[in-house]
Amino acid sequence: MSWLSSSSIGRKVVMSVTGTCLVLFLLFHASMNIVAIFDSINGTEGYEAICEFLGANWYALVGTVGLGFLVCVHIVYAFILNAQNYRARGQERYAIPGRQKEVEWASLNMLVLGIIVVLGLGLHLFNFWAKMQLPEILGYYPESGTELIEYTFSQWYFVVAYIIWLAALWFHLTHGIWSAMHTFGWNNNIWMKRWKCIANIASTIIILMFACVVLYFFGSSCACCA
Ligand code: HEM
């Protein structure tokens, strides 16, 4: 198993497997958040039920620890891969051919976008997780998920920050999903084009679901839109 850390392809496999798991989490998380919009329209309390289910129960805590582990491995390997690319170039930095330059540009872009995604995640965990699951772990009463969403997205600066965060995440996902499929071996000419299209559609659906929640609650809090 040491090839997973010692070889370049092994490190790419680790990035791709952890990235795929994180995409599946995002799909679940985005679908779950859409329930808050249905609640707001229908006067139901489905979102509160989901938040209670995902509180500080053992299975939710196992999920949180697993998620934290995936994020950490994904980030550490991203830095290792970039450093390795940088070192491999060495003195040849200005003599590399066009295709290679493109690959390096995409990889550097992914690192910069990834850093914006992590900064946004820090803000997001502070806004939600630190007021919901964390107090529950510490034995305090958690805040209501619905009320936190209503409060957060009634503030224009959070709306702007989340939209920038989601835009960075969209770019990161489109390239990331495509790149993972490349690593998994689906890399002939026909499938690379198809994966580009599938990656664009999947990333757009996920990001649109998150953005709908942000904009819906901003709209419903805004006096001029009410
Ligand atoms: C409209 C946008 C979003 C809303 C309303 C939202 C809502 C929430 C809520 C309510 C929680 C707390 C759950 C709990 O502690 O019980 C949470 C946690 C979390 N969110 Fe989001 N989220 C959004 C976007 C995102 C995005 C884009 C990401 C990833 C890039 C993300 C990643 C996470 C993570 C990693 C946690 C911690 C999960 C855990 O404790 O296991 N969220 N979010």
Describe this protein with a few key phrases.
single chain, 226 residues, mainly alpha, 3 helical TM bundles of succinate and fumarate reductases, 9 helices, binds protoporphyrin IX containing FE
Residue windows where pLDDT falls under 50 for at least 5 positions: none
The CATH architecture designation is Up-down Bundle
Largest beta-sheet details: none
Query: Mean pLDDT, nearest integer?
Result: 90
Number of β-strand runs: 0
Please state the overall shape, judged from the principal axes of the Cα atoms. globular
CATH C-level name: Mainly Alpha
Oligomeric form of this entry? single chain
Element order: H for helix, E for strand: HHHHHHHHH
Radius of gyration, taken over Cα atoms and rounded to an integer in Å: 20 Å
How many angstroms does the end-to-end distance come to? 58 Å
Total of DSSP H or I helical runs spanning 4+ residues: 9
Overview of this protein structure:
- With 226 residues, the protein is mostly helical.
- The chain has one domain: 3 helical TM bundles of succinate and fumarate reductases.
- It is 81% helix and 0% strand.
- The chain contains nine helices and no strands.
- α2 packs across α8 and α2 packs parallel to α9.
- The radius of gyration is 20 Å and the shape is globular.
- It binds protoporphyrin IX containing FE.
- The site of protoporphyrin IX containing FE has 21 residues, from α2, α4, α5, α7 and α9.
